């Protein structure tokens, strides 16, 4: 408790320093979280656009259809049917891992010749062939025309069924009639008695509910799903065909869900065949997910290309801010050390301070990052805002992970230097202040030349990649991407900035020698101060160099990507309007002169499109 009381007193006494550290870390966390927020939002916009285009074709984007078909009268037993029913109702949705809007199972018995056994008089000589079908919850999808809906129970050994209105006339049946349906493959099962209790019309023929097709429905008695499963299949009536339709919701699809569902769909046929042989995937959105994954990977790669230099600048900003804050408090650290505080106590004190500032930044930073991502989504460049659909930005667990990583990096940047500062005495500290001419660590190891060498190697890799693309005709996404290429601009700017800082004192001294005769007093003192203590301005100068350099690089990269995409679209389209003649028959133009005239008394018929 004493250390916490002392910590709050220390932070309050240095309100300005604490506030600067807090605001700086909030901005750092906001920048760190805004990049993945914007990336995820852009991918969601991409998926949403693809779904709209896909939906315009009349097919549900998240439709999955499974189908079982009996082969050579090898009917499944009731245990196999129960297992596949359990898998399709319980296990499959968990394996796909996507929200399910609707599931429509359909169980079908074989189409057989049926005969009227009782009821109103009909055409007894007419040959009729009908099957038995069950669909889940048809009440909302049909409009009863005559009679009533079927019952969920078998009454006096008679199964109630309904037929489409046109099927009554086609089959020559009437409401109230009972027909005999022979059971093929059933071991000693007598013919089923089916009573027509009503006729119906389909409300919406475009609804996915009727995925089996209207033609099939004309030849099927529609019965209760409960009767089909519990009274027929479980009592030995052989199943002929089974279909399962799943309508998954892809609107809020995330990258992790995309990969998970894609892998599940790839292995689905193997699982189905193990449970019930001859069961397979009839319609799948695997190809759609595969397309989403390719396009989202390309988009993520492009956004990372633009964000990588900014992340480098962000990390440097965190380090510089931590270093500057600690430099301002080195006197306090030395005083604490001289008055008996142990190294462990000093480290714990500043570690707790970093945690408190980090906790506040963890709360406020992502909120600011959310609005920054919104602004990024509505801009078309530097201070260029456009009226486009807003990016769908939202908080996800990975966003909080990015925020925690940024805070952890800041805590380490604030704590690690304390290990050295806490061991210094007052004498050591004063000696270090007096030794202003000592070279920095990066100057001793020639970090500037090393970074420029790495940047030169990156330029070499880039040119080799360009030569490979031109010589092989491959596209950029077909080659393995070297992550180093994304950081080359930032590495070059770091190296050039350090080299400039190394040469700055020499340039200032030379300029001072050449101009000192003509300098007035303010300029003379300024040049003297800069040439003697330029080291204290190094962090800010390097930050400004990186900010301006990376800003120009990011702006030019964004405009280059936008121009390339625009030109690619124009090249693919070719023109503003594409007109294509629609002919009923293909006619060879060379034969037009030899064809007999269809209208001797007048001109030839017009060649426009048929009305």
What class do helices, strands and sheet pairing give? alpha+beta
Domains (count): 3
Proportion of residues in extended strands:
5-15%
Distance between the termini: 89 Å
Q: How many distinct helices?
A: 18
Helical content stands at 55-70%
User: Radius of gyration from the CA trace?
Assistant: 38 Å
By oligomeric state, this entry counts as: single chain
| Secondary-structure element series | HHEHEEEEHEEHEHEHHEHHHEEHHHHHHH
Report the count of strand segments. Answer: 12
Mean pLDDT: 80
The coarse overall form would be elongated
Could you please describe the fold and organization of this structure?
This protein has 611 residues and is an alpha+beta fold. The protein has three domains: 191 residues, no CATH class; 158 residues, no CATH class; 137 residues. Helices cover 56% and strands 14% of the residues. The chain contains 18 helices and twelve strands. Strands 1, 2, 3, 4, 5, 6, 7, 8, 9 and 10 form a ten-stranded mixed sheet that branches. The protein has a two-stranded antiparallel ribbon with strand order 11-12. A hairpin with a 2-residue loop joins strand 11 and strand 12. The protein is elongated and about 125 Å long. The C terminus is likely disordered.
